[in-house]
Amino acid sequence: MFRIHHSRAALLATVASIALGPVAASAQDETVEPPAGPVIAEELDSLHFVVSMEANLRAEPAGDAETLERLSFGETIFVTGRVHGADWLRVETRDGVVGYMWGPNLTPMVIALPGTGAVGQAAAPFEPDDDTLATALPLDASLGFALADGRVGPDDEQDYYVFSLDGWTDIEVRAEGLSADADLSLLDENGNILAESVYAGTDPEEIFYLADAGTYYIRVYMFEGETGYDLSLATYPADPPPADTAGETFDNALYIGVAGPQEISQDGWVGAGDSLDYLEFEVTERSLIMVTMDGLQADADISLEDDFGSILASSAEGGTFAEYVEVVLDAGVYYLSVTPFSGSTPYVVTVASDPMGPAPDDSAGNSPEAARDLGLLLGEVDATDWVGLSDPDDYYRFDVETSTQLVLLLDNLTADADVEILTDGGYQFLADSIVAGTGPERIDTTLSPGTYYIRVYSFAGSTDYRLRLSAQ
Description:
By secondary structure, this protein is an all-beta fold.
């Protein structure tokens, strides 16, 4: 069961905040003379939401009292009492923090359900069928803010809401007040997922998205357990995104040039309606390629792919931190794919190149059949070689005659490489080490008599390595 709330005060505050820009959250509460003491004139028990861009929760009902927390527009809080002789309210947060807030910064949630009459009238019990797109409950996003609450669990696994936009709009959807794990999705008019929020546990779920005119759906759904939720939809008029100059496939990728002595750079944009950009560049000789993506206003990620579509390296830093990829590439054609992780953002991609010369000689085979034979393993064996884009796998083979305790160490790495031990002609996995980055890889295992294979392989980038085997 759920309720939808529409408050004229909230909607007017939203319109004013859009038209006039951010307003100091506590301009009024800072100038009001405090009452003689926190005498409660009326006990209350109601849920309110914040209608100022920012509002202070204070330790006492006074403008100069200690600030306990700052609440943002649209957040909800419980009002437990009205202070005598002043427009201050005693409140309690969902975390149990008790304090006081200036009354005009809050407005009560007013129930308005289909068939209940004018806003402010009491609503009769109502439990609609809200489990499909066709029966989604409408939200009015025309004035910038709408609220609803509901519950999902084993007996009612999902709730749908529908709203419409008249033009390009920044959307903020938030589900909070969770007591179990529930998740949130934003869908287009055909039910395709545009964005999701899947935080673990009872953390609030939130989605930020830039959308064009049209019809959209919100889905709140159970992940584990049963929980109530408070849903808010905030909308802000936005400018349309820039034109999409980069294609979404290899065939229409935007060609940005040849990686050479001079850096090549390209700006772009990804987000609503443009969820993938492909950039194409060339490498004319084996080189260390360094790709940077910055200028981000939301979270976006980047991957480097070869002309077969294999991902050679990627970067997925959180937030608006710059993304960085470094890898040794042979001569050829390569592609950069840019994707939004959350929200919409411009970006600037820069490709720098440092020639590396010919690849080192490969003294290890590239398949089990061509594996370098280390012979009968007695005592210690050392080998050095290199793996990278043009030589991603090195294979070795060795024999043991008796039950043997083997310690394998792979070190002296300058990029991420991993190692595994194989049996059955080099095609049956036995053990591995996949430490991230350039840390040493180590395998400590007991081997029965037989023939074994070692595979050293590049995970990201190109690197020399030293392989050491110690048998007892």
